[in-house]
UniProtKB/TrEMBL annotation:
<feature type="transmembrane region" description="Helical">
    <location>
        <begin position="509"/>
        <end position="526"/>
    </location>
</feature>
<dbReference type="Pfam" id="PF13899">
    <property type="entry name" value="Thioredoxin_7"/>
</dbReference>
<feature type="transmembrane region" description="Helical">
    <location>
        <begin position="538"/>
        <end position="556"/>
    </location>
</feature>
<feature type="transmembrane region" description="Helical">
    <location>
        <begin position="563"/>
        <end position="582"/>
    </location>
</feature>
<dbReference type="GO" id="GO:0005886">
    <property type="term" value="C:plasma membrane"/>
</dbReference>
<feature type="transmembrane region" description="Helical">
    <location>
        <begin position="467"/>
        <end position="488"/>
    </location>
</feature>
<protein>
    <submittedName>
        <fullName>Thiol:disulfide interchange protein DsbD</fullName>
        <ecNumber>1.8.1.8</ecNumber>
    </submittedName>
</protein>
<keyword id="KW-0560">Oxidoreductase</keyword>
<dbReference type="GO" id="GO:0047134">
    <property type="term" value="F:protein-disulfide reductase [NAD(P)H] activity"/>
</dbReference>
<dbReference type="GO" id="GO:0045454">
    <property type="term" value="P:cell redox homeostasis"/>
</dbReference>
<feature type="transmembrane region" description="Helical">
    <location>
        <begin position="355"/>
        <end position="374"/>
    </location>
</feature>
<feature type="transmembrane region" description="Helical">
    <location>
        <begin position="394"/>
        <end position="414"/>
    </location>
</feature>
<keyword id="KW-0472">Membrane</keyword>
<keyword id="KW-0201">Cytochrome c-type biogenesis</keyword>
<keyword id="KW-0676">Redox-active center</keyword>
<dbReference type="InterPro" id="IPR035671">
    <property type="entry name" value="DsbD_gamma"/>
</dbReference>
<dbReference type="Pfam" id="PF02683">
    <property type="entry name" value="DsbD_TM"/>
</dbReference>
Amino acid sequence: MNNVRKLSAFLLFVCASLLFKPAHAQLQVVGDGGPGPVKAQHLTAELVSLSPSIAPGGILQVGLVLTLEEHWHVYWINAGDSGEPPKITWTLPEGITAGPMLFPIPSRLPLGPLMDFGYEDEVAFPVQLTATSTLKPGPIHLDAKVNWLVCREVCIPGKAHLGLNLNVVPGDLTSSAAVQPVGAVGEALGLIPKPLPADAKLTITGGKTDFVLNLVTGGRETNAEFYPFDQDQIANAAPQQIEPTSDGVRLRVRRSEDLKTLPAQLHGVVKLSDTEAYEITAPVTPGEVAAAPGSKLPGAPATSSVTTLSAIGLAFVGGIILNLMPCVFPVLFLKGLALVQSSGEERSRLRSHGIVYTLGILVSFWIIVAALLILRATGTQAGWGFQLQSPTFIAVLAAGLFFFALSLAGQFDLGLSLTSVGGGLAQKQGYTGSFFTGVLATIVATPCTAPLMGAAIGFALAQPAGVTFAVFTALGLGLATPYLLLSFQPAWTRILPRPGAWMEILKQLTAVPLFGTAIWLAWVYGNLHSGNSQGVDHVARLLWCFLALAIAGWALGKWPASWKSAIAALLIAALGLAIPLYQPKDTTLVWAPYSQQALDQARAAGHPVFIDFTAAWCLSCQVNERVVLKSAEVQHEFNKNKVTLLKADWTQYDPEITKQLASVNRSGVPTYVIYPAMKNSSADVLPELLTKDIVLTALEKDVSR
């Protein structure tokens, strides 16, 4: 990922192989090359073997065993969004060769918005030794230099000098495959991903946003994860969607945003459980695969089977129930009140209004379905209420519902019809009004999902276009049915109370669910912006929009039926709506590369200095940077206090950065240091895990010194 890791050809362990110790800016190497475990920072390392001896011409399984402290982890061969795998360099006696270090089945290790692949608790990395037939009997010693990166909130490189003593015993072939695989190495050998069985089959389809892996194993699989060997192939943190099949599993994996063109093949590991995984290499066929109705995210229950007819029935009943949802009920209720008041009209005209209202709903649903199908054809996955993924749509919808709720509450009068839009739509008798009431009913229904709708919609979105249209048409007909029946049988309105003062009170009460819906939409709006740490600011902008709409409503209520007040209200409402829709420019400040000269110059000029000691392989660093250091509040304080920002990138070894870390008694990243403007003032070292309050409090304290 471009914004997470930009490692050069020289990896982290070039710097880890160099010296690093807090007192002397060097990394301490643990172990003297002898046998037995050695203790390092946050883990214990040891070389072990399945047998104490090896025969000339034989083989022996040995391994590197790392036992980690609680919540610390090391990495798989592809570390994910950050990190580096362990490495081992052997010094072996003549006649002994070592194969590659093998990696057992990894696990997903989430931290904030990022995802790593690796191991916690204990892990063993098997290595196969092979002896030549001319190897002389007697004791031998194996020497190994090991490098690793161990992480929790902070990432610390480690280095050990390990050893293993063996005996070469003529004719002793018990050290071959016949040796029982016991202990950590034996367990790890059982966890090495295997080749696909001959009777299994794997195909991979690559779309614009996803890879779809279809694995046939002969039995239904309910869990699966894919781990690529190559970086920047998949969006590591994105959930992987599981679609169990009768003879295997289909796995939908999101493509990396940095993968601009499809690769010719994918090489990785498909994990079916903690003890079963397969190493796969398969060509990628371009194409789009629709999600199956039984698809689920890991840990979610699979949906029950749904047929086309049952989906249509469920959608119709769900549409009827949708009328009772707080988003929609005020529309039906007020339309019903209008029907009561107009019950004296000709029955044919009332029926026409019901048909036009139904047509408005159906046309709106068809437009939504067309948009969904277009998105699906382009490879984008979208579902019911996909409009709610758009901050602009949310802001406009929330503002519209809030403004209409003000009218229902009695601040101003738009009439009993919800179709008062632009004069011509304000007449409840007009067919245009009935049509746009249906449109509005559909719009306000999109935040709601009634019982029975979920299964029907999930089924419809995975079917051909004709079935999708049929299911959504049934949903629209269900939504329109209550009012349509009343318009065809106006006598049924006799069960409703006669018109009177109660209608005004009840109308005002219907404003409550609309205000509640507007509040909920404001919460959704803030969550859509939560990823950039400015969700609260965006919610505040929407609340200012609500205030402007309230002022516009006051103007309409103060001077009713006045074109001047209408124009003033329109201008105030437009200005209010512009507040949440305005997207401010990125104010992210520029960080200069760290150097002692840059630090000295800034302090000599009387500027406070903030140093971010970071690395591309440090997951905590990336989370702190995204969530805290790039937040609007922290950026504002940096700019206001004229703080010089220096980034000490420790992705590759830098002795100057290492020395500076040691000077503040730190041995890893992330590390954050504030130097006050006073030249002789001491450094303020912040915690590894940052919050905005921590940084803002430290800045307030340090810039005043």
